[in-house]
Design a protein that fits this description.
Elements (H helix, E strand, L loop, with lengths): L1 E3 L2 E6 L4 E5 L5 E14 L2 E6 L2 E5 L5 E15 L3 H9 L9 E3 L1 H15 L5 H19 L10 H12 L7 H8 L3 H12 L3 H19 L4 H7 L5 H12 L3 H5 L6
Helix pairs in contact: 2-3, 4-5, 7-9, 8-9
Length: 255
């Protein structure tokens, strides 16, 4: 684990868990790799690469980590940053979280500067952190408080279980026992992305896990994860992570 001032990088083991606990300070987490489910108050959220989360001080929460574990940059934000967000209407007491490719890109830049020890690194880190705060505030908190209803959680679980198979909205809606339109609206409301984007993300993150943990060739990984070809995986992977699968496997931006 790297730690310096108001920044640290945490690494979490596959299938690990953290018992309910709280912190005496506010924090932001930027997920770099892997995924985990967090129970915070009455709300259950699934965080993946490119998520930024806000944890208010004193709020009890617990985590369950996925098959690939997780890695995140944890930030202790300055009080004036939080005052600015609150003044712009961001309801920090709701423990908001957002997701987007810009956060992965900013996270990789921040990780490079964490690894750097030249005279300009502290200024660069602060600049990137301010970009993250601004993007976090702009994204707001589109996700409603509270645990997703059982049928919607079932739809999400069905999507993960069958991510490598050809799926349609009809398939997922049928598994959830809801109409496609209702599924599409509520999925976006709770998880912040469309069903199609979530499926693409799940496939891409599964491919990333196989790239990190196996020596399988990239074409085999593409087919195992539901992509049509090596080229299809490369195109989606580069759009999502900013790296080709080969660059990712070579260990770019990893501690």
């Amino acid at each position: 684990m790297f730690a310096s001032g108001n920044l640290r990088v945490g690494q979490y083991a596959p299938h690990g868990a953290m018992a309910p606990h709280s912190h005496d300070h506010d924090s932001l987490g930027l997920i770099l790799d892997g995924d985990f489910v967090e129970q915070i108050g009455a709300s259950e959220r699934r965080y993946t690469r490119g998520c930024v989360t806000f944890g208010p001080a004193g709020v009890t929460h617990s985590q369950r980590f996925g098959a690939d574990g997780a890695r995140q940059i944890i930030v202790m934000p300055q009080s004036d940053w939080l005052s600015y967000l609150a003044g712009k209407g961001v309801r920090l007491s709701d423990a908001p979280f957002v997701h987007g490719p810009q956060f992965f890109q900013l996270g990789t830049k921040l990780l490079r500067e964490i690894q750097s020890d030249d005279d300009f690194a502290p200024l660069a880190r602060e600049s990137i952190l301010l970009e993250i705060i601004a993007a976090f505030g702009r994204a707001g908190h589109a996700h409603p408080a509270g645990r997703p209803p059982a049928w919607l959680a079932a739809a999400r679980d069905y999507l993960h279980a069958h991510a490598a198979s050809p799926l349609s909205m009809k398939d997922i809606a049928r598994a959830a026992g809801r109409h496609e339109i209702h599924l599409a609206r509520e999925f976006k409301r709770y998880f912040g992305v469309s069903v199609g984007s979530y499926l693409r993300q799940a496939r891409t993150e599964r491919a990333a896990g196989l790239l990190r943990t196996t020596s399988a060739n990239i074409t085999d990984i593409a087919l195992r994860c539901g992509f049509a070809s090596h080229a299809h995986l490369c195109r989606v992977f580069k759009a999502h992570y900013g790296l080709t699968p080969s660059q990712y496997r070579a260990g770019a931006f990893r501690l």
